[in-house]
Design a protein that fits this description.
It is a single chain. Helix 3 links the parallel strand 3 and strand 4. Strands 1-2-3-4-5-6-7-8 form an eight-stranded parallel β-sheet. Helix 2 packs parallel to helix 3 and helix 8 crosses helix 9. The chain is globular and about 45 Å long. It contains nine helices and eight strands. It is α/β, with parallel strands linked by helices and about 260 residues long. The chain has a single domain, classed as TIM Barrel. Helices cover about 40% and strands about 15% of the residues. It binds nickel (II) ion. Nickel (II) ion binds next to loops.
Amino acid sequence: MFIDTHAHLTDILFDNDIEKVLKHSYELGVDFVITSGFNLSSSLKAVEFANKYKNVFASVGIYPEYAEEADALGLAKLEEMAKDGKVVAIGEIGMQFTEGAPKKEIQKKAFLMQLELAYKLKKPVIIHCREAIGDMIEILNQNKNLLEFGGTMHCFSGSKESAFQLIKLGLNISVGGVSTFKNAQNLKETLKVIPLDKILLETDCPYLTPHPFRGKRNSPEFIPTIAENLAKLKGISVEEVAVQTSLNAQKLFCLGGRNA
Ligand code: NI
C-alpha cells in the first residue's frame, strides 16, 4: 500500500481520464491520494473532488503566489472549507522568494495566518518552500506551538542540515519525482540519512514526473517509481518503504485503512 500525499487531481490535464488514472493507481497499490488546493478556487475544487471519490482526500490552502487572497474573507472561506470531513490538512501554504512572487511580508503574513488556522482546526500543514528555507525555518522556530498537529515539507529538495532542522520541528519530509532526477545528487545524499519514519511519498502531479518518465504527465501511478528509487537509496525493500511511509501518512493525516 502506498499513499500519494500531494497531488493536483483537479488539474485540467486530468479532465479526460481521471477515473481511469485513479483505478489504475489503486491497482498499483496507491490506496489513498490527497489532492491539494493552492488558492481559494482550487481548494474548493479539491474538496468537491474528494467528496466524489472514496480514496481521495483534500487539503485546502493559499500558497505563496496567491498570498493576497489570504485576507480576512479569504481565511474565513478557507476555514469553512476545512470543516468538510474529507479535508485532512491545510496546504499547500508556504513561501517562495522567486522573481515576480508577492512581497515577502505579504507571503509571511499569509503563511502565518494559515499556520494559525491549522492549529485552531487541529490539522497538519502541507508546506511549500522555494528559495526561502532560511526565513521558513526561522518562522517555524518562532511559531513551534502552531505545529502541534504536525505537517510536512512538500517536494523537499534542500540540504541535510535543513532536513534535520525540519524534523526537529516535528515535520515530515515529502519525497517526490525530483528525488529520481539525475542532477539531484545532494537530495539523494540527504534521503539516505533521514529516518524513514519521517518520510512521506508524493507526486505533486501533474508536475515533476519521475525519471525515466520525464516529459510525460505525472500521476499517482508513478508513486511506485518514486518508492523504488527511495528504497534503492536507502538499501531497503520497496515493501519496507511502502509500509512505513503509509503508516507515517495515516498517522499524520488521520486516514483509515484500505477498506475504511
Ligand atoms: Ni503542489
